[in-house]
Design brief:
Glutaredoxin, 6 strands
């Protein structure tokens, strides 16, 4: 496919997956392989050594095995793993398991928002004084502690301490 024919979209994610509990998007996987051809050796090794571990760890995923004579090994009819080693097939199966389920598309931009701001993108220097641009550090002026208003937590702690002191005075009387 050429660049112009590859579908494109904005960046998005699967919302609410993991809120409450994680739901695996992979429900079934098909492993096609040849029982005798050498290019399926890695797939056969994966089936013999790692398939039971995978199925025990992922009981919600149905695994289909399709022996095909003289055909290249495939995962879900989409990923050809011709002459791949067992560890490569493990990585592809893990990739399929952890995918979000969204189709793979070319991205329009690296970021996207549904509510764009006319002010631009925020960064840490947005509301800083411009005198910081020409200051030499370390600086006495910018190293001073800035007194701030007492926080709500500090106010509550002080109030609790005062109530405790009043109760102690009343218990002494």
């Amino acid at each position: 496919m050429t660049h112009s024919t590859i579908p494109s979209a904005f960046l998005k994610n699967v919302l609410h997956n993991g809120v409450g509990r994680y739901v695996c998007q992979l429900q079934r996987i098909t492993l096609s392989f040849c029982k005798s051809h050498g290019s399926s050796r890695g797939m056969r090794d994966f089936i013999e050594n790692h398939l039971l571990e995978f199925t025990n760890a992922n009981p919600g995923v149905v695994v289909y095995l399709k022996p095909r004579r003289h055909k290249a090994p495939r995962i879900v009819e989409a990923i050809t793993v011709h002459n791949a080693q067992m560890d490569e097939i493990c990585k592809w199966v893990e990739f399929m398991k952890t995918r979000s389920g969204e189709k793979i598309l070319r991205l329009e931009k690296k970021w996207h928002t549904d509510n764009p701001s006319i002010q631009g993108i925020w960064d840490p220097t947005v509301n800083k004084s411009t005198s910081l641009n020409i200051a030499e550090f370390p600086s006495e002026e910018f190293s001073k502690f800035i007194e701030t208003e007492q926080s709500t937590t500090e106010k509550l702690r002080e109030l609790a301490k005062n109530i405790k002191n009043v109760k102690m005075r009343l218990s002494v009387l």
